[in-house]
Structure formats: C-alpha cells, structure tokens
Amino acid sequence: MHVLVLGAGVTGVTTAWYLAKAGFQVSVVDRQPGAALETSHANGGQISISHPEPWANPGAPRTALRWLGREDAPLLFRPHADPAQWRWALAFLRECLPQRTRRNTAAVASLAVHSGERLRALRAETGITYDQLERGILHLFFTPAEFDHARTKLPMLEAHGIRARACGSDECVAIEPALAGVRDELAGGLYAPDDESGDACRFTQALAELAAQAGVHFHYNTTITNISRTRGIVDSIGVRDAAGRSGALTAGAYVMCLGSYGSALVAPLGERLPIYPVKGYSVTVPVLDRALAPSVSLTDESRRIVCSRLGERLRIAGTAELNGFNTAIHPARCQAILDWLNARFPGATDIAQAQLWTGLRPATPGNVPLIGRSGLPNLWYNTGHGTLGWTLACGSASSLADLMSGHRPPVRGFPFLHCDD
Ligand SMILES: Cc1cc2nc3c(=O)[nH]c(=O)nc-3n(C[C@H](O)[C@H](O)[C@H](O)COP(=O)(O)OP(=O)(O)OC[C@H]3O[C@@H](n4cnc5c(N)ncnc54)[C@H](O)[C@@H]3O)c2cc1C
C-alpha cells in the first residue's frame, strides 16, 4: 500500500522510515525545501527519557502565578481572542490534577523507554551520526525544596525501568566538571545515565537521506492546502507548489505529522485535535573553551532551561509561551537564555555569535502524543509530541508502523487511538 506522510519534521521522517521498513510504499510531503526546518530544527537536543512528567502537573499553576507578568517567565500566557487557546489552557489546567498527571506520566514513560531502545537499534543498524553523546542527563536543582521534591519521583522512574539517582553538589561536579563554578549554589541533582543528547535536525536530515535511498519519495516545497474526503475516507490531499500551482496527491493511507498545523486541516473532516502551539526558544553558540563548556546534557529544573553539547556548539533551550502561531523572536525571551549561559558558564562560548531560534511545540494539554487511527479509516495520526518530540520520535513512529501493519506495539499502557489496549 502507498502511504503519504504529511510533514517532514523528526516525527514525519521517522514515520516514513519505519513504514518503509515495514514494507509500505512511502511518500512524504512538506512545505519546506528540506526536512526538519520547523520545530525539529534547533530544539534542546535532549533524549530525555528520565523526564516523562508533563508541564501540566499539580505544581504548574503555582509556578505560572509566581512568574505572572514577567517577560522572562519560563511559562508565559499571552491571551488572544482565540477560543482554541482558551480551550487548550483550560484543558491544560484539568491535566494538572494529580491522577491525570500520574496517568500522563506513565503513558509517556513507557513510550519514552521504548523510544530509547528503538533509537539505539536504529543507530546500530544505520551508523547514523548527529553529534550524539551518550553521557546521560543531569537535572539540576538550586533550592533544597525543589531537590527534595524531585527525589520523591525516583521510585516512579524506577518502576518504569528508568535509571536515575540523586547526587549532592560534589557528585554533580564530578559528573560534569564544567559545573565547578556553581557548586555552592547547587542544592543537588538527579542523574539519569541512560539519557542522551544529539542534534535532532542533523538526525532527521540524515535519516531522510537514508529513507530516500531506500525508496521513500520526498515532495518538498509543497504546501498542503486541504484534505479531501469521499464516502467516509480520505481520497486525496490538495497541494500547492512553490510556483503557486495547485494539484492533488493520492495514496491508500495518510499519516498526519504536521506539528502544530495539523488541527486546522482536519477540522473540516470533523476531527478535533487538542493540539496548540507552545512557543519555545533556543540559542546556539560556538564553544570557545572545551573545558568550561559542559558535555553532559543539563536541565536546570528551576529555570526550565536545557543545555546540550552538539559537537563544537552548545545549544541552550527553554521557555514556554502560549502565544498562538507567532514565530517572531522576542528579545527578552532570548536574553533570559543568554543570561543563564553567562551566569552558569562564563567564558565557555562565543556569545557574540549566538544564533537565536524559536519553534512551536505541537502540544496536547497533557503532553501525551496522538498516535493511531483517526475517526476515518485511512487517516492516521502521529503528532502532538509537545516538549518531547525528539525523545519520543523513534518509539512513536515504529509504534505507528506496527499499528498500520496490524500488530500491537510493545508499549504497555499507552493510549493508542482507536486501538484496544
Ligand atoms: C525550544 C524547544 C526545545 C525543545 N527541546 C526538546 C528536547 O530537548 N528534547 C525533545 O525530545 N523535544 C524537544 N522539543 C520538542 C520537539 O522539538 C518537537 O516535539 C518536535 O520537533 C516536533 O516534531 P514534529 O515533526 O511533530 O513537528 P515539526 O518539526 O514542526 O514538523 C512538522 C512539519 O510539517 C510541515 N508542515 C506544516 N504545515 C504544513 C502544510 N500545510 N503543508 C506542508 N507541510 C507542512 C512543516 O514544514 C514541518 O516540517 C523542543 C521544542 C522546542 C520549541
């Protein structure tokens, strides 16, 4: 069967790869001139299996209130007269209830563990390189209260088979010597040795190349304008090329991997996807002094900022802003990240050459992605990965390929759509 994958971000390209491996004939459509040029372009680089807890958790409303009105807030709500934004914000609040947080965390944890296994297998199979480091992630806490609270999560991680341990500040510095300058400020850390980091864009572009060699056809510079339905199934997608010419592409099945932009396209089909863009920023800087720049991937849990070494570059990313589809770079938001870099690792990088970037995380309120069949028999979803699209890419895509092949994916307790668990 011919399958058309809509979108060539990390989710679409991994989907195309695993579908081709499963024996489908695959084509991919994207409006950009290449793969991974939107949200998958310059993210935080973390394969963060040890952080399955969603932003929607019992502590989130308090955090949002604490930072209310501050332009450098890690979580920022810019209200619009847009019912979708308010609907999503209310649903987010509902997902902050303890039992919902527990359920969402468990679903993401089991998918994340599976995804880590699939990523390692893919690397062994293809030899793909993307500035990856297998040095773990160190989560940093700068107040004793935050550190104490974080330690209560260790049994949950262990129950999911995720290795992590609490470390005092000296051990944090032993794991990552570049932290020596902040030793006295650190309350402690959680170290997850099996986590990884790497450049999602390089990975996606390299995998797209391998997929093309394996027979996957990529239609770049092709904007999807609508999805057409006849007698209860999708019969084609309307497209427009770079020259403005309109046309249609057809296949036996279609997989939606359009990030934040899929909801509007499926709404006329009666499908409501609870995905809203959550804007984030990253800064990429060349490393000047290797000894001063960290190579273990870090998460500053107090500021919600992550930092990954990508070869001779350092990528620092974070902040979450509910601001519609606005992709303008807001200087105060980037400055908060640059200030963090200056304070934590002075002299490590060439800040004058910082590359600023912003992207829209395709987020569901509980950060659980939508994977499985839609209400239409030949339209499938692999989308809504929010803060963890790079972490979950290989497991989500291979699970979707399993489902489309009629098999149950080996991910216990994940709520695949329109599939019995
Ligand atoms: C600041 C930031 C930091 C992050 N850090 C991490 C991290 O450390 N670890 C992690 O796991 N995740 C991280 N993420 C999340 C991760 O980047 C996303 O979840 C992931 O990139 C989403 O991938 P995607 O393929 O679903 O979407 P996208 O990469 O956005 O791909 C969607 C594709 O669809 C195409 N498209 C959209 N509309 C149309 C249309 N009408 N016609 C044709 N093509 C269209 C786009 O061109 C795009 O290529 C971060 C995100 C941000 C913003």
Task: Describe what you observe in this structure.
InterPro entries: DadA, FAD-dep_OxRdtase, FAD/NAD-bd_sf. It catalyses: a D-alpha-amino acid + A + H2O = a 2-oxocarboxylate + AH2 + NH4(+). Its EC number is 1.4.99.-. Keywords: FAD, Flavoprotein, Oxidoreductase. By secondary structure, the protein is of the alpha/beta class. The protein has two domains: 2-40 and 202-273 and 367-404, 3-Layer(bba) Sandwich (FAD/NAD(P)-binding domain); 50-196 and 276-363, 2-Layer Sandwich (D-Amino Acid Oxidase, Chain A, domain 2), CATH 3.30.9. It has eleven helices and 20 strands. It has helices at 10-21, 60-66, 83-95, 98-126, 144-151, 154-159, 169-175, 200-213, 262-266, 331-344, 389-404, and strands at 2-6, 25-29, 46-47, 75-77, 137-141, 165-167, 188-192, 196-197, 217-219, 222-230, 233-241, 246-249, 253-256, 276-286, 297-300, 305-310, 313-322, 355-363, 370-373, 379-383. The strands form four sheets. Strands 4, 5, 6, 7, 14, 15, 16, 17 and 18 form a nine-stranded mixed β-sheet that branches. Strands 9-2-1-13-20-19 form a six-stranded mixed β-sheet, covered by helices on one side. A three-stranded antiparallel β-sheet has the order 10-11-12, with no helix packed on it. β15 (297-300) and β16 (305-310) form a beta hairpin. α1 runs parallel beside α8 and α1 (10-21) packs parallel to α11. The longest helix has 29 residues, at 98-126. The protein is globular, with a radius of gyration of 21 Å. The two termini are 26 Å apart. The mean pLDDT is 95. The structure holds flavin-adenine dinucleotide. Flavin-adenine dinucleotide binds at residues 7-12, 29-32, 37-40, 43-46, 48, 223-224, 257-259, 261, 280-282, 306, 317, 359, 361-362, 383, 385-391.
